[in-house]
Amino acid sequence: MILRLDMASDVPIYQQIRNQIVLGIGTGALAPGESLPTVRQLAESTGVNSMTVNKAYALLKSEGYILIDRRNGAKVRPQPSDGVPGPELLHRLELLAAEAAAQGISRETFLSACRGAAEKMRAKGGN
């Protein structure tokens, strides 16, 4: 797994790791049940502190993207079959819509951008 981290970014490294893994899951680059590198392996390959990777994995677990088992390590969680967004995702979408509105982005432009992002994910192999 290759992650692109920007050490000069204002986005915290743990959040960048989380975002890259979520993108991998969304595009199908990381399949349900696929094992992720250990915390130590990912820390060494990216050159970041293992606590940073651990924080990213804990966040991914709490958000339901991965499962962590002491024996088998971290794995991509199988996707729910109902396809209905959970309350956490709905909350984040509501916040994103509010941020767009606060920046003067029209509803139509926001929805168009969402459709474009979804199409981009599909083109990369996501659902």
Please give a structural write-up.
It is a single chain. By secondary structure, this protein is mainly alpha-helical. It folds into two domains: 13-76, Winged helix-like DNA-binding domain superfamily/Winged helix DNA-binding domain (Arc Repressor Mutant, subunit A), CATH 1.10.10; 87-123, no CATH class. It is 54% helix and 6% strand. The chain contains five helices and two strands; from the N terminus they run αααββαα. It has helices at 13-27, 39-46, 50-62, 87-102, 107-123; strands at residues 66-69, 73-76. Strands 1-2 form a two-stranded antiparallel ribbon. α1 crosses α3 (50-62). It is globular, with a radius of gyration of 16 Å. The two termini are 20 Å apart. The model has no long low-confidence stretch (mean pLDDT 92).
Q: What is shown here, in short?
A:
By secondary structure, the protein is mainly alpha-helical. Helix content is 54%, strand content 6%.
